[in-house]
């Protein structure tokens, strides 16, 4: 009796694999059966029952946040969708084609949902290009992977800039069909951080959620990306310098009037604050609804700088005034107001000087 050893088993397995391996003609036979024998029509919606809408499974794989443009209120992300549905018009029997169970066909050769980015920053363009292929299983299960650099509108609330959190949406819609014909179905992995996901240097992705609209006229799903700004850059380049300039604003009253540097020092601090206010305005959106707290603080610092300039000018005027000329009532009132703010009256100061 013949005994099977390990070597014979391996040789038999290799021979069996070689015999059963699918060839180019097998794949060509599958395509010929689908498109020529069965006369597949890509213009027909692949509904099994006209009373039941076609279920389209969709998920979103995110590669990374490329950019958040605060001025244009635009978010740029990189990723792709995984769109799946069942089309029995593309089914075949693998036993008739040497166990061919899967083929790839150009996306323009078969029916596919016309998926659009609804809140795109540019004109409305269908996702996918003719160079993309769709995976087709023998039971008619279709899987499409449209890759895209998504440019979407994002309304930003910069009230607490640079410690703000934002929510930006990526809205996907099937444009030419209603909910009676097609519905979106979420999978367990409806949102996936791809293994190649790259962190952004300015923004952290806190979470991603999605919502399928059941009350709209067309199939629609919205992915909401919650972002948090990394404030370290703005702390070192804006917040700390502004705080130091605000401190220097008060030091102008320490400089003696006879030195001649009092006005120049005040003007330098004022112009520095004005430059920071301008730089902040350039990175924030033109928005009259939400005003940045930091912008308001800088504006107050500029107003204080103006008051310091006016006070310094009056001090220099009084210092250069001849002693033979009497002090006018306006200057007396200013000195009295300043003395009251400091907790003393002019009379008390006069007695102490004696």
From TrEMBL:
**Pfam families associated with the record:** Neur_chan_LBD, Neur_chan_memb
Q: Which keywords has UniProt assigned to this entry? A: Membrane, Signal, Transmembrane, Transmembrane helix
Q: How does it sit in the membrane?
A: Multi-pass membrane protein
**Domain Neurotransmitter-gated ion-channel ligand-binding per the UniProt entry, residue ranges:** 32-231
Q: Where are the transmembrane segments?
A: 232-255, 267-286, 292-314
Residues forming the Neurotransmitter-gated ion-channel transmembrane domain are 240-325
Annotated GO molecular function terms are: extracellular ligand-gated monoatomic ion channel activity; transmembrane signaling receptor activity
Q: Which GO terms describe its cellular component?
A: membrane
Q: Where in the cell is it found?
A: Membrane
**Matches recorded under Gene3D superfamilies:** Neurotransmitter-gated ion-channel ligand-binding domain, Neurotransmitter-gated ion-channel transmembrane domain
The keyword Transmembrane appears for this protein: yes
Q: Where is the signal peptide?
A: 1-21
The record's section on PANTHER family has: NEUROTRANSMITTER GATED ION CHANNEL
**In its UniProt entry, what is this protein called?**
Uncharacterized protein
Task: Tell me the organism's taxonomic lineage.
Answer: Eukaryota, Metazoa, Spiralia, Lophotrochozoa, Mollusca
């Amino acid at each position: 009796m013949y005994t099977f050893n390990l070597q014979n088993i391996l040789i038999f397995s290799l021979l069996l694999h070689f015999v059963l391996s699918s060839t180019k003609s097998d794949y060509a036979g599958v395509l010929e059966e689908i498109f020529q024998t069965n006369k597949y029509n890509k213009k027909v919606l692949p509904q099994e029952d006209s009373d039941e809408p076609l279920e389209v499974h969709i998920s979103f794989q995110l590669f990374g946040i490329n950019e958040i443009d605060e001025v244009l209120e635009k978010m740029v992300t990189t990723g792709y969708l995984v769109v799946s549905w069942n089309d029995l018009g593309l089914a075949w029997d693998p036993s008739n084609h040497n166990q061919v169970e899967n083929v790839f066909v150009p996306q323009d050769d078969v029916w596919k949902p016309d998926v659009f980015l609804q809140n795109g920053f540019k004109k409305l363009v269908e996702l996918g290009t003719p160079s993309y292929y769709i995976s087709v299983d023998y039971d008619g299960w279709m899987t499409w992977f449209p890759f895209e650099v998504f440019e979407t509108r994002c309304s930003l609330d910069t009230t607490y800039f640079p410690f703000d959190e934002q929510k930006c949406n990526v809205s996907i819609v099937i444009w030419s069909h209603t909910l009676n014909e097609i519905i979106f179905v979420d999978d367990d992995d409806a949102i996936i951080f791809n293994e190649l996901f790259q962190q952004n240097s300015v923004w952290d992705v806190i979470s991603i959620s999605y919502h399928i609209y059941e009350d709209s006229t067309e199939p629609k799903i919205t992915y909401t990306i919650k972002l948090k700004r990394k404030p370290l850059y703005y702390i070192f380049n804006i917040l700390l310098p502004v705080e130091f300039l605000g401190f220097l604003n008060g030091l102008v009253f320490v400089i003696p009037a006879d030195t001649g540097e009092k006005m120049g020092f005040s003007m330098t601090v004022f112009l520095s604050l004005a430059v920071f206010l301008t730089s902040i305005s350039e990175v924030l959106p033109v928005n009259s609804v939400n005003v940045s707290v930091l912008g308001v603080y800088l504006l107050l610092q500029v107003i204080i700088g103006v008051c310091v300039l006016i006070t310094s000018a009056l001090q220099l005027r009084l210092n250069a005034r001849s002693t033979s000329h009497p002090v006018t009532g306006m200057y007396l009132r200013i000195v009295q107001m300043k003395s009251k703010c400091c907790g003393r009256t002019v009379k008390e100061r006069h007695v102490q000087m004696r």
